[in-house]
Amino acid sequence: MMNLLRMDFYRLIKGRMLWVFLGIIVVVVALMTVFFAFLHSDAGKDFLMNSVQDGSGTIVTAGGAVYLDDPADVDAMLTSMFDLTQIEYVTQAFAYGGGMYILLFLLVVLFCAAEFESGFAKNVFSVRQSKTAFFASKFILMIVVSVVFLLFGTALSMLSAAILGIDLRASTPTEWLTWLGLSALVTLAYELILAAVVWLVRNKVAGIVLAVMLAVGVIGGLLSWILGFFFGSDALKALLYTGMKATGAGSAGIEELGVTTIVVVSVIYAVVAIAAGLVALKKRDV
Q1: pTM, whole model, 2 decimals?
Q2: Is 61 found in the same domain as 8?
Q3: I want to staple 59 with a disulfide (CB 3.0 to 4.6 A). Which of 66, 92, 142, 202 is the partner?
Q4: Which of 51, 83, 115 is the last residue of a domain?
Q5: How far apart are CA 125 and CA 154, in angstroms?
Q6: Would you place residue 120 in the very low, low, confident or very high pLDDT band (cuts 50, 70, 90)?
Q7: By C-alpha distance, which of 285, 24, 284, 16 is closest to 153?
Q8: Are residues 62 and 179 in the same domain?
Q9: Which helix H or strand E contains 29, and what residues bound it?
């Protein structure tokens, strides 16, 4: 397994995919940081007030129209929108706003699909390498990639915010560790699902489509609506998508859903995906 793991890391580091996606993160986080810095500035607040406020003091929000007579109330509302913790800022600038899930999921799909398209997997198995060892090397690789993406994006977001002088409420070390750990666990479960699907269908396009739909919440949103409609809101806790939304909301979202719930649900999905992946690798054409 160690030889396979070394080869995986060598191909990932020497290839272009990892560096292209990390480069995209740099660009997107920089743009999101500039955007947030503008919104935090007096000019940004003036722009928002002038763009959403009409003569009668109406503010158009996602929930409908809010009628305000005093411009100071408008300023207070906008100020409250920008009252973010460090973790909340990172989730908006990087995890959700920066498209971390799309980039990470696409990297996993492209890497796993390339192994069969290039004939690498067939060559590995032709020398009697264990398919369990093959899977284990990918499992470790996914863990490392998830952690690297999270740490890289987080460090970049905080550095950019510091450079531009964005004032954020400090998150505690415990909150940081909890958020990073749960975010890595949720993304790992998704990555295992994607790997199993790619190995099963051996179709890169199908994997890419699934990765995007999972990352943007199309599938999760649909399942949430179905479960909520038939079984009530408590049933939504059984969805991995709910855990992704909770970690995307920062410490408040994690506290609301519960650490135990996120861990248990993520582990269940991961175990099922591992079993499906091992079955997929037993296909005769490998």
Answers
A1: 0.82
A2: no
A3: 66
A4: 83
A5: 38
A6: low
A7: 24
A8: no
A9: helix 17-40
Give the separation between CA 101 and CA 191, rounded to whole angstroms.
10
* Same-domain pairing of 151 and 47: no
Q: Does any domain span residue 34?
A: no
Q: Are residues 108 and 187 in the same domain?
A: yes
Residue 36 lies in a domain: no
The DSSP line for 118-141 is TTHHHHHHHTT--HHHHHHHHHHH
Q: Confirm whether 72 is domain-assigned.
A: yes
Do 104 and 61 fall within a single domain?
no
Same domain flag for 78 and 211 = no
pLDDT at position 69, please? Answer: 47
Answer yes or no: are the C-beta atoms of 161 and 79 closer than 8 Å: no
pLDDT of residue 284 exceeding 90, the answer is: no
Residue range of the domain that includes 124: 2-27+85-280
**Geometric angle at alpha carbon 259, from 232 and 148, rounded to 5°:** 120
Each as own residue / partner, the long-range contacts of residues 242-247 (CB below 8 Å, 24 or more positions apart, any chain) are: 243/182, 243/186, 244/101, 244/186, 244/190, 244/217, 244/220, 245/217, 245/220, 246/182, 247/91, 247/95, 247/179, 247/182, 247/183, 247/186
Contact status, residue 135 vs residue 277, Cβ threshold 8 Å: yes
Residue 93 sits in the same domain as residue 218: yes
Q: Which CA distances in Å does 71 have to 28, 50, 55, 176, 214? A: 33, 10, 11, 36, 41
Alpha-carbon torsion angle 123, 125, 131, 134, nearest 10: -30
Reported as a pLDDT band with limits 50, 70 and 90, residue 126 is low
Residues 76 and 206 occupy one common structural domain: no
CA-to-CA distance for 201 and 117, rounded, in angstroms? 12
DSSP letter for 64, please: E
In a domain, 116, yes or no: yes
Tell me if 59 sits within 8 A of 212, measured CB to CB: no
Domain count, the chain: 2
